[in-house]
TrEMBL record:
It is found in: Periplasm. Its main location: periplasm. GO terms for cellular component: periplasmic space. Residues 22-88 form the HMA domain. This is Periplasmic mercury ion-binding protein. Residues 1-19 form the signal peptide. Involved in mercury resistance. Acts as a mercury scavenger that specifically binds to a mercuric ion in the periplasm and probably passes it to the cytoplasmic mercuric reductase MerA via the mercuric transport protein MerT. Keywords: Mercuric resistance, Mercury, Metal-binding, Periplasm, Signal. It comes from Herminiimonas fonticola. The keyword Heme does not apply.
Length: 91
């Protein structure tokens, strides 16, 4: 039992070293009214691993901070698209 516990502790420590908090900016050109950012933010907040969201109507973008071990950019863009606001990574 003790060996199993030690193995789990090591696996957890090693697994969490691969996780990284990332921030990406998504271009969301379909936001055409002041209420649109609310919908975009709500959709992104439902994605597991997202920790911070800032949506700008003026810039037509969403800045999203997330744990890349729990989610990825494809899931973020799918969330906005499913809410009616297709997005892409802003370069």
């Amino acid at each position: 039992m003790k060996k199993l516990f030690v193995a789990l502790v090591i696996a957890t420590a090693v697994g969490s070293t691969w996780a990284a908090i990332q921030t990406t900016t998504l271009s969301v050109p379909g936001m055409t009214c002041a209420a649109c950012p609310i919908t975009v933010k709500k959709a992104l907040s439902r994605v597991e691993g997202v920790s911070k969201i800032e949506v700008s109507y003026d810039k037509r973008e969403a800045v999203v901070t997330f744990d890349n071990a729990r989610t990825n950019i494809q899931k973020l863009t799918k969330a906005t698209e499913d809410a009616g606001y297709p997005s892409s990574v802003k370069h």
